[in-house]
Automatic annotation (TrEMBL):
GO terms for cellular component: cytosol. Its EC number is 6.3.4.2. Keywords: Ligase. SUPFAM superfamilies: P-loop containing nucleoside triphosphate hydrolases (SSF52540). This is Ctp synthase. One of its GO terms (molecular function) is CTP synthase activity. Signal peptide: none annotated. It comes from Lactobacillus delbrueckii subsp. lactis. Residues 1-123 form the CTP synthase N-terminal domain. GO terms for biological process: CTP biosynthetic process; pyrimidine nucleobase biosynthetic process. It comes from the Bacteria. It is an enzyme of class 6 (ligase). InterPro entries: CTP_synthase (IPR004468), CTP_synthase_N (IPR017456), P-loop_NTPase (IPR027417).
Amino acid sequence: QRERRGDYRGGTVQVIPHVTNMIKEKVMRAAQMTDTDVVISEIGGTVGDMESTPFMEAIRQMRREVGSENVMYVHVTFVPYLRAAKELKSKPTQQSVSMLRSIGIQPNMLVLRSEMPVPQEMKD
């Protein structure tokens, strides 16, 4: 819609900054319109997928723009249980956290989903 209105002055619409700015505007508008203290924005999909790139970049920028004290990254991840080996595998979670860190997002909290209880030594 913005492109058709001429907001980009006939230029190419770019993911950064055009799409990321629009994502940030929508999150900020949700906070302002509802006068809430907390806005939860879920970024679905898999860390590293191309489809999630503009959303990841937008939330990375938001921490810098609104202050780290006003942003909390919660990473919800699956810890698979291998029945044959009778063990939980933390490697997929380690890799996704590493990918987040590589793009400048340091999760404040990990929420681990698993069909078996996650032992304390794995959480540490």
